[in-house]
Amino acid sequence: MAAGDRRDRGALTAARLACERFGLDGATTPLPGELDRNFALDGHVLKLHAPGTDSRLLDLQDAALEHLAARCDAVALPRLLRTRDGAARVTSPEGSVRVLSWVAGTPLAVIGEPGAETLASLGRAVAHVDRGLASFEHAALDRPLRWNMLSAAELVSDATAGDARAVLERFAAHVAPRLCALPGQAIHNDANEHNVLIGDDGRVRGLIDFGDLCRAPRICGLAVACAYAMARLIVPERQVLPVVAGYHEVAPLAPRELALLPELIRARLAMSIAMAACQRREQPDNEYLLVSQDGVTAVLGRLGALPREVEHLRLRTACGYEAVPTARAVRAFLQTADVGPVCGPSLEHAPIVDCSRADRLAPGVEPAIGRYLEDRRVYDSDAFETGLPGERRTLHLGVDVFLPAGEPILAPLDGVVRDVAWRPALRDWGGVVVLDHETLGGIRFHTLYGHLDRASTARWACGDRVGRGDVVGRVGTEAENGGWVPHLHLQLLTAELGAGCDVHGAGTLAERDVWESVSPDHNLLLGLPGGLRAAPPRDATELRAARRASISRALGLAYAEPLNIVRGEGAHLYDDAGRAYLDLVNNVCHVGHAHPRVVRAAAEQMARINTNTRYLHDLLVTYARRLTATLPDPLGVVFLVNSGSEANDLALRLARAHTGARDVLVLEHAYHGNLSSLIEISPHKFDGPGGAGRTEHVHVCALPHTARDADDIGRHAAAARPAAFIAESLPGVAGQIVLPDGYLRAAYAHARAAGAVCIADEVQVGFGRVGRAFWGFELGDVVPDIVTLGKPIGNGHPLGAVVTTPEIARSFETGMEYFNTFGGNPVSCAAALAVLDVIADERLQAHAARLGGVLLDGLRDLAARHALVTDVRGAGLFLGVELRRPEGEPAAAQAAAVVEHARRRQVLLSVDGPHRNVLKLKPPMVIGDTDAARCLEILDEALSRV
Length: 946
Ligand code: PMP
Prior knowledge:
Blueprint: H1 3-22, E1 29-31, E2 37-41, E3 44-49, H2 55-69, E4 80-81, E5 90-92, E6 95-101, E7 106-107, H3 116-133, H4 162-180, E8 185-187, E9 196-198, E10 204-207, E11 214-216, H5 218-230, H6 236-239, H7 241-250, H8 255-282, H9 296-304, H10 308-318, H11 327-336, E12 352-353, E13 368-370, E14 393-396, E15 399-402, E16 408-410, E17 415-423, E18 430-438, E19 444-452, H12 454-458, E20 465-466, E21 471-474, E22 487-493, E23 506-508, H13 512-518, H14 523-526, H15 540-550, E24 565-569, E25 572-575, E26 580-583, H16 596-608, H17 618-628, E27 637-641, H18 644-659, E28 663-667, H19 676-679, H20 683-686, E29 698-701, H21 711-718, E30 722-728, H22 743-753, E31 757-761, E32 786-789, E33 800-804, H23 806-811, H24 826-841, H25 844-865, E34 869-875, E35 878-883, H26 892-904, E36 907-908, E37 910-912, E38 918-921, H27 929-945
Parallel strand pairs: 12-13, 26-36, 28-29, 28-30, 30-31, 31-32
Antiparallel strand pairs: 1-2, 2-3, 3-6, 4-6, 5-6, 7-9, 8-11, 9-10, 13-15, 14-23, 15-22, 16-21, 17-18, 17-20, 18-19, 19-22, 24-25, 25-26, 27-33, 32-33, 34-35, 35-38, 37-38
4'-deoxy-4'-aminopyridoxal-5'-phosphate is lined by residues 643-645, 648, 671-674, 728, 732, 761, 763-764, 790.
């Protein structure tokens, strides 16, 4: 039979079996494939495996897909479709037929150069699959497989091209033994650009083709993904980093895995080249074998010219590890080492010269210092280009000591000459000497002395010993030091990057974390009391990457495009580009961002003394008296703490000490703080994502619609031994709720009848915000037993307070001291006093009442014109706008869209409420009438668009 007939017979059989056994009907369309014949059919992939295909391999893939189906929902993967009677495949004379679900998406291969977010999502996708596969076991995982990197050394003889062969030989000798020491697991092992599928949002959504599934260290699978991604990138060694960072985000990588990655990426590229050569020899007609070869050879060639060590440092940094693993030990050694001076003249009073804007380094006086980590315009020649568009090496990595030409330079430590060179080209080092040193623990580091004269380089040979205090060389003249004004460039190096003197004295700003580890603060050598480091700001992109690596992702960021806020004034925030944003969110900077009176009060006190409450201090008692003067009797005893959470935690302790009971009555959806004790009493948290549910001693009472709903407090109180009833005076997280008239009075009565004390959480709403009263509870016509304060109390200075009755305070005097290191310190008290002064002197409470009224009227007008707005509520400058769809469902997506639209229009809003459909307005109390008008205008605009 002719081959074509057999192929058609195969297609027909596959289609027939798909219909009869799998229940799939319709036209089949052939798809490319390396070994199998694949067809698209009705949202599925119909696979015809040639007769003789090892059934164990198909079993392996089927088992893995079914294993992942239950464990990996973050990535779209093929699902195995079983026959009507439960079989995984059907055998026929033409081969075995299997059906997998179709995974939608555009192959990475057909999109242009992928961006950082696409690449990060690739890393995350591979990691999710690896996590899912970690618990997968199957006998066929350990089958011989040429694509398994553990056996890459076997391909040496197939690699004819020079680069590939050299890489594989190195792999066999140096890498394989270290790789084998890492634990293995099932890995997908083939995230090449044809198997990676991108969704409409530009992120990886799916991964297909489990044919190379095998057991290997998981870092091998990541190396595969990196290797093929790099073949599509212009500066692959830099641009690939998000893939690794993305993987690390989902499945944290250990340093010993990262250390192998540069080698493994090269090995995988070399394997690809070797395999392609070998397969081309075996099957010269199979075009599919040529895919994935694009760019592979070129990347391998490029990587061959780069030091692996720098890649390793970049990878470590991308994952939040310090770039140079030994840098910490070097810094620790230098902290206490006996370091000598680098020159005769004392540098102690040498001025620091700002060289950042200069076109030419010109200190004016000598000696003078040019700063470490300064971003300098002067590095403008081609020598400072990096290959990435618009990027130059502008970050000064050493310290400059401006001295007259001829001045002797001394070795600050014993050392050995590592290298010495004469490099007279313009902008180069001139005379340069590098010394090796060792910490007491035997860790090597280096010091570099650049811009010396020529004679300095003639006096040394590599390996010469240099004693502390010996003359290393002399400062060169402009004619012989590379064309610079006479100075020493001193650079500490914790890693051997580049051979000998081939060290960069300036690095890229974007990679400052790498370079700062390689060349740590030179004040470890110079010991100048004023320091010598500059601090060039990071841009938003850099900040996001650095934040991802070093800050827990449990901390959220606001807005799809997060803001880099660098300054504030009044009700406005300013980003790094100087753009102003109207802040309608921040009820912490109550009297306005950076209010000069508060800033001055805190700064002046900070400059005088900051201590703790074990000393007498006027400000502590003055503040306590001023605060209690705003509160009704008998609320007269004050505890100062550091946050709203601390205040609520202490309030619980007081309540429990006073009542001897433990239970707590709380309102639905409430949030009272981030401490363990408060997560336990915050339904918003314990019933929300990641929450552990309600604990027995907590009783959740209904959010009221009428005063009668206070009966729910009575019901719960009767079934418990409550120590406390805690409620916000206007529940905020629950959706800016105004409690019904009479509710708090009735609720307090029920709680007190059951022996509980009543805690008013005023963290959000206190200090005049509600306009008609200074405290929110006053609107409810009650006097709490304990009041907790936070947010606005220090206008951004971290501070909180608990105020209670003398009687409850007495119950807390059990013999156990209450000491709070920072609580009540004089600086906090000074800030808090200034806040009270400003509220009074600027008549902010009256302002909140009036402007709140203006806003409320304007919002009601919006409600009349936009059906989406179903309720408008609040008091003073604490307002909520509830959005619901015509059918009454909470309009969370629309609320989020309004917030994003407003952000684009430079107005900052937030959402809250259990359904996240309530827009919150709680601006600094100093917003003006034009700000209010702008708020309404932008809301109107946003509501018209969503
Ligand atoms: N109580 C309420 C009502 C709050 O809104 C918050 C903070 N959002 C807290 C307590 C906790 O305050 P902090 O974050 O200062 O600990």
